[in-house]
Write a structure and sequence with these properties.
Radius of gyration: 17 Å
CATH architecture: 2-Layer Sandwich
CATH topology: Translation Initiation Factor IF3
Strand content: 35-45%
Oligomer: single chain
Number of strands: 4
Number of domains: 1
Structural class: alpha+beta
Shape: elongated
């Protein structure tokens, strides 16, 4: 399965547009990660624990997107867009990653 942000696949013709596919992944954070991230905010540096949550959520959203496209008989998903959203407040923070694209069959 080819998953790309471009509007086509170089060297391949789009034979059929199968529709828009989307996937949303919501992942929770935990109190320890939040605490250490707040320490990093004060002393500086990268928050590796949060970076891992973002990376995991992005990979899961892209995998779900590809699976939904495959169900439609697609060879590729083009025009992929990733959106991130933080849900929650002080007590519970959730990260939502949305992936959207167009499922296509290539010729």
């Amino acid at each position: 399965m080819i998953v790309t942000t471009t509007d086509g696949v170089e060297g391949r013709r789009i034979k059929a547009y199968l529709g828009i596919v989307s996937a949303d992944v919501v992942m929770g954070t935990n109190v320890f990660r939040d605490f250490f991230a707040s320490v990093r905010d004060v002393v500086g540096g990268r928050a590796a624990a949060y970076e891992k949550v973002f990376a995991d959520a992005k990979q899961q959203a892209l995998a779900d997107l590809a699976a939904r496209a495959l169900e439609l008989g697609a060879d590729a998903v083009i025009g992929v867009d990733l959106d991130y959203e933080i849900i929650g407040g002080d007590k519970r923070t959730l990260l939502m990653v949305s992936a959207n694209g167009t499922a296509v069959r290539l010729g």
